[in-house]
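In this supplementary section we document a worked example of the pipeline. Step one takes a protein sequence of length 291 as its only input; no multiple sequence alignment statistics are reported here. Step two produces a three-dimensional model, which step three serialises into structure tokens for compact storage. The input and output of this example are shown verbatim.
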Amino acid sequence: MTKPTMGRANAEPRWVRMLLLSLGLGFLFLFLALPLLAVFVEALAAGWAAYADALNDPEARSAIGLTLCIALFVLPGNLLFGIASAWAIAKFDFRGKSLLITLIDLPFAVSPVVVGLVFLLIFGAQGLFGPWLAAHDIKVVFALPGMIVVTMFITCPFVARELIPLMQAQGKEEEEAALSLGSTAWQMFFRVTVPNIKWGLLYGVILANARAMGEFGAVSVVSGHIRGETNTLPLHVEILYNEYNAVGAFAAASVLALLALLTLLAKAIVEWRMRRETRMLAVALPPERQR
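The serialised model returned by step three reads:
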């Protein structure tokens, strides 16, 4: 009786592999590379001078600055919420744990436009806290605070969702050992926990920032579309395109595309460092631990 050939189930004919590879590369080119190339071609259609003028417009500079500002303000909230929720879920057992996990995933399930409308009903002039905010001259909607709040709501799951499975897989033995050796809670956190989760934390931050800079629906509802004040880059692109200013719209869109490419580069670097560190740790382990 002949022995079955190892790996035969995965040994497809060469033409099948080439066909699958061609389909995958064709899909990537048609739906990712080609639209990205079209953005830069249209942005530079009228020449470099028109492209530079479009980006040097005061409204465009305001939109770029506001987009980066919102991403910067959202970052600390994402870090605090992501680490705290992941720590609670991965290290402790408590009532309502499954409910907390469900609530973390809520921004993924709810449309961003609905999120904007909900915040408008809460903080708007006719909303729940609207009269009190107006009496104390506090502006939330149609101003920067409201845009930050809705963006933070939309992006809050990314850091937590990266850290929860990582911290669950690592367990809590190292933290318990550090505490038993006399470390304080802060020493344990910064010397044991943070080094163990640093790559997952950075990966989640990159994804959250990418979503924050590209958010449209929720921000569109609460921004008020005030030119030069509450228009982020995605909103600025929409306004220019509706006004048939193709060069200005695609010039602003090219900035978003460049930010997306930088995000992908940062993501690739983090993934490479994670794989490299994992290989180094695997080599350093004794043979019995590797098995």
